[in-house]
Amino acid sequence: MTNSIxxxxxxxCIFIIGSNAAESHPIIMGEIYKAAEKGGTIIVVDPRRTAVxxxxxxxxxxxxxxxxxxxxxxxxxxxxxxxxxREFVDARVDGFDxxxxxxxxxxxxxxxxxxxxxxxxIRNVARIYAEAAESAIVYCMxxxxxxxxxxxxxxxxxxxxxxxxxxxxxxGIYPLRGQNNVQGACDMGALPNVYPGYQDVSDHAIKAKFExxxxxxxxxxxxxxxxxxxxxxxxxxxxxxxMAENPALSDPDVTxxxxxxxxxxxxxxxxxxMTETAKFAHLVLPGGSxxxxxxxxxxxxxxxxxxxxxxxxxxNAKDDFSILCLLGTAAGLDFSYTDPRxxxxxxxxxxxxxxxxxxxxxxxxxxxWPCPHEEHPGTPYLHKGRFTRGKGLFVVPxxxxxxxxxxxxxxxxxxxxxMFAHYHTGTMTRRSPFLNRETxxxxxxxxxxxxxxxxxGEGDTIRISTRRGSIIVAVRVTCRIASGSIFVPFHFTExxxxxxxxxxxxxxxxxxxxxxxxxxxxxxxxx
Amino acid sequence: MGGIICAETVTGIETMVEETKKLVQKFLAERxxxxxxxxxxxxxxxxxxxxxxxxEELDALVLDxxxxxxxxxxxxxxxxxxxxxxAVICRGCDERAIFELFKRNQIEENRIQIIGIPCSxxxxxxxxxxxxxxxxxxxxxxxxGVDPFEDAGVKELLMGDDTRRMKRWAQVLKRCIKCYGCRxxxxxxxxxxxxxxxxxWVRRGSIPTEILSFHLIRAFHLSxxxxxxxxxxxxxxxxxxxxxxQLSMRRALRERYDYIPGCDPxxxxxxxxxxVDEPEKDRSIPEWVNTLRE
Amino acid sequence: MNLVRTICPYCGTGCGLLLRVxxxxxxxxxxxxxxxxARGHLCIKGWTAHEFIHHPDRLTSPLVKKGDSFxxxxxxxxxxxxxxxxxxxxxxxxxxxxGGLSSAKCTNEENYLFQKMIRAxxxxxxxxxxxxx
Lengths: 527, 294, 133
Ligand code: SF4
Ligand code: SF4
Ligand code: SF4
What we know:
The structure holds three protein chains of three kinds.
Chain A: E1 13-17, H1 21-24, H2 26-37, E2 41-45, H3 51-54, E3 58-60, H4 67-80, H5 86-92, E4 93-94, H6 96-104, H7 108-115, H8 119-131, E5 135-139, H9 141-144, H10 149-162, E6 172-175, H11 182-187, E7 194-195, E8 199-200, H12 204-214, H13 226-231, E9 239-243, H14 247-250, H15 254-262, E10 266-271, E11 283-286, E12 295-298, E13 303-307, H16 320-330, H17 340-350, H18 359-362, E14 367-368, E15 392-393, E16 412-417, H19 433-438, E17 443-446, H20 448-454, E18 461-465, E19 470-477, E20 485-489, E21 502-505, E22 512-513, E23 517-523
Parallel strand pairs in A: 1-2, 1-5, 2-3, 4-15, 5-6, 9-10, 10-11, 16-20, 17-19
Antiparallel strand pairs in A: 7-8, 12-13, 13-14, 16-23, 17-20, 18-19, 18-23, 21-22
Helix pairs in contact in A: 4-6, 4-7, 4-8, 4-10
Chain B: H1 13-29, E1 35-41, E2 47-52, E3 61-62, H2 70-79, E4 86-90, H3 92-103, E5 112-116, H4 121-127, H5 152-158, H6 162-173, H7 181-185, H8 211-221, H9 231-235, H10 242-245, H11 247-257, H12 288-291
Parallel strand pairs in B: 1-4, 4-5
Antiparallel strand pairs in B: 1-2, 1-3
Chain C: E1 2-7, E2 16-22, E3 25-31, H1 44-47, E4 63-66, E5 69-72, H2 75-93, E6 98-101, H3 108-122, E7 127-128
Parallel strand pairs in C: 6-7
Antiparallel strand pairs in C: 1-2, 2-3, 4-5
Bound molecules: iron/sulfur cluster (3 copies).
Residues 185-188, 222, 226-232, 242-243, 246 of chain B line the site of one iron/sulfur cluster.
């Protein structure tokens, strides 16, 4: 996230694309409403009429997977009409000619046809976004979980730079992070290609620095991503250690994931519950929940925040810090930390961006990185005055349509996502009585016309099949979803939406295409 | 000390804090209660509710910001031993809420003591509070209340005919993300089980909530007991002006029945059980409702 | 009364919570009015964050798979087993035969230690988490 959450309240235009913030990030939605109260315009792009769309000034219900055509059409119009920020583009961004060449192919009319949105609406939205004094872009998994997810993000960055809507307090780009500490996990180098602080593993000088700090020789070649590790389990990957993740439910095409996990020579799972993944383990280690540990989480606005221990772990369970210290020591490493605080000191020492982070400074309100030294106040918004690479760069987003489109055999668009009361694989929320009460059963949202078409009503059961497998769920009839599409939340182990999903990945980010695949529906006759 | 309504706060906030500390000290010394619920400014200047039990903790006692205590006090007493007694540093709204909880048998009167403090006129303006003081002030001086109907935002919400009002309310209520924060924070929302959790009334598993069930059930249930503490509104992440939903009913109660919820620990709501004072049938819809129409 | 100021375990907004602890049990969650982002607001998940903590399904002992079921073992044996096996695999097939999935639910410190353990302990960069999912 380039800016801070509360900055949204001051934006004149908020362009929300592929995010149902009202259900997934409700508190951020509150800031967006504040902007609306002050007269700001809320524009929502989403194939579904989500709760966010319901409360927007303008809702563009585009065809699934046509984000790039829409954005290209908007940029074309903005450039043609001269609505872009010439000064900003000249002074701060390279590659404008490439962008111009790219959008030359995308007339507003062509975009309109692809997205099935009237050209006039696209023009209107483009003008509002470009002309507002400060416009912000908010996006989430609806942008990234596509085979062209990285290109989608690129297109959004291009749009923002084109209009000069970065580097000021109320503009910027807001990717909303799903999990509480995804930001932190990335920051801390839980990624195959970088050490903590996004330092490249294949850079010799950096590698040497970490070898010095950690006292071990390190590998200079980038590792495998989650999906790659799981795919090569049993072959290249023989032993796997999974800490508090549940790929058996969260990864695409879980039937294959299960086979992979079962074929490992040794699988260790550390978690707080016996998850679907833990069932495959040879060894299960009982970890600690957030309430049982001291440490830090980093939220989506790059804010380090203190997590404080409130209760003891149950029975013989241990907090994950203690377990890791035992494991590291057993692996022959010097893991003689007495307190998570010692770890933070080490992090600050080896990752310059977090150099000024200490627990004392986090106590009151946390601290937003970059924060290179102890006197640095933290960074509420990025790219003020200059970009990380000096000048920004327009990168041409290549449009790849969804890899699996509806056809005669599988005529429906299927997308997966979240609902407001549950969270990810439901490990925690489904054990929370109040949340589980809201929705105890797996369901699929479908349009009344489609429901009529296959002869089902609210609460009836249907079988959803794709080329990967099938699940049985209850029907929820709603006009929020367009005819021809269905939506299935993925929180439910008894009807795993990820049995259905297509495991194709975005070539750069390796994010699976959860938002579009083709499905077939049948009514299930009650026994 | 205090109790007389004057134009501005005479006692400065520092003096008030010092006086409150002295009072709390006395409570502790004389063992009038086992703990005192108030606000503590702890390490790193972090402010949060705290039950004071030791005199040496009192250095950290503060009175601001406003932090509703009535429901927390009730919850503390529930998990404490039977003989545990708690004193609570109460603003006007906290006291009113506690009085309503007495009437609902949610708090035993002999287990709670009230240390009454007034709000500043600035706070009263923020809360649109008609009575920014408890019935008995232990420190400081009261400031006059604010007429919420004079507020531009309230006027905007309540102005116009039914259709316009409904439209305006629907527009804001549609943002509801069903966090249950309003219910969780409201000191009067104590029903077990809560109707808002009943599937007959409130559809499960989807947002926004149905306006006519979720929000109006809450409004009806609190119509003669809302103490205008504003906790619901403060807890609402999407900025719905929930407190204003109750305003018309509060005014009706006051004008028709001379009844203000929470202003007396014993007097029951006129529309609850005691129908003696009921006005004639044709007058039960107050006329002033029509004066709000354009 | 013990109110512990901490952070919501669910989404990336990172709202501040106050957990009320009575006799070692988290019994209620309140919003933190001093939190810079949430400012006293929570969503339905935040308000109920205490509910799963003491759930009877919580794992309470290290477990080793014996046939189709799990048996409890001691921490000493569990740690030894984990490292014997994983280091054994690394010795036999090379470090790149070992992988680690860290967690977006765990703290920064834990993520740091995890990737350090995988990278330094096994000589591989096969470490990732579910950012993309
Ligand atoms: S409805 Fe709102 S203002 Fe009224 S008592 Fe409940 S929380 Fe206070
Ligand atoms: S606090 Fe606001 S958002 Fe939450 S349930 Fe109440 S009205 Fe809805
Ligand atoms: S309370 Fe809700 S919005 Fe806030 S961090 Fe938790 S899950 Fe996210």
